[in-house]
Design goal:
By secondary structure, this protein is of the alpha/beta class. It has helices at 12-26, 42-54, 68-82, 105-133, 155-173, 194-198, 200-208, 218-229; strands at residues 2-6, 32-36, 57-60, 87-90, 136-140, 179-185, 188-189, 216-217, 240-243. It is globular and about 60 Å long.
């Protein structure tokens, strides 16, 4: 497994790096992982050390994904380190919380660049290597891509666009043997949002609105991503797999005054 994973901190990205490495090593195959984030942060270096301890070859490459040229350089460096590429996981995301009336265009454009355009630019740069290997791409979208998130700037807009971009890339690159899919996470526990889940009352309130009754662990999102990258998903492309414990389909349950028993005509 030769993979490039962006947004590779100890969250969905980091869990995906570990999952891909473990699966490859368990099969007796080599694992070469390039993990990218915005800077050589301690958590990124910690992840690289953990990957190496598992037996994988791993390298941290910082990258500003809002820079188109940096996207191309990242892929070139990853291909050189790995000797090719089997998988691209576009997981990095930017957020800027503000009402639309207060957003500055430069902030809007940066979020759009990282959340949407970067997947296209990374995929475009990785296309030759992925075509050669019959590889696959997974973009981490969001349930926000199908639900507006008030006062969260362009986040939902960019994720909705990303879902369509996944379908567009899949349609155009299927002839080249490259599969492209998305994974749309719901509430997922990471190091970044650990203060939320450390608050028992808040954690319980979140769990109460999820049909499965709990938030997701980052490793569960990683399992979905790894599946879509694997040969077991060889006939799946252009899909956006929602991994949210049933939350996105449960909104009708929260309308006040709903009937708890089936109605009968009389």
């Amino acid at each position: 497994m030769r993979a490039l994973v962006t947004g590779a901190s100890y969250g969905i990205g980091g869990a995906t790096c570990l999952k891909l490495a473990k699966d490859a090593i368990a099969k007796g195959e080599p694992a070469k992982i390039v993990a990218s984030a915005t800077g050589l942060r301690p958590d990124l270096l910690e992840l690289i050390a953990e990957l190496k301890a598992l037996g994988a070859e791993a390298k941290a490459i910082p990258c500003d994904l809002s820079d188109p040229d940096a996207c191309a350089r990242l892929v070139a460096d990853a291909v050189a380190f790995c000797g090719g590429l089997d998988a691209l996981v576009s997981n990095a995301a930017a957020r800027y919380q503000a009402p639309l009336l207060e957003m500055d265009v430069k902030d809007w454009n940066r979020v759009y660049a990282v959340n949407t355009s970067a997947t296209w630019l990374l995929g475009k740069a990785a296309h030759p290597a992925l075509k050669a290997s019959g590889g696959a791409i997974v973009a981490v979208t969001s349930i926000a891509g199908s639900n507006p998130h008030a006062n969260y700037g362009p986040y939902s807009v960019t994720k909705a666009a990303l879902i369509m971009l996944v379908a567009q890339m899949a349609a155009e690159w299927a002839k080249d043997g490259i599969r492209v899919n998305g994974v749309a996470p719901g509430a997922t526990k990471t190091r970044f949002n650990s203060p939320i889940y450390a608050d028992q009352q808040l954690a319980a309130a979140r769990a109460a609105v999820i049909p499965l009754g709990r938030a997701c662990d980052a490793s569960e999102q990683a399992s979905a991503i790894a599946f879509l990258l694997s040969k077991e998903a060889s006939y799946i492309t252009g899909q956006n797999l929602t991994v949210d414990g049933g939350y996105d389909q449960s909104v009708m349950a929260f309308i006040p005054g709903r009937h708890s028993k089936a109605l009968t005509n009389k």
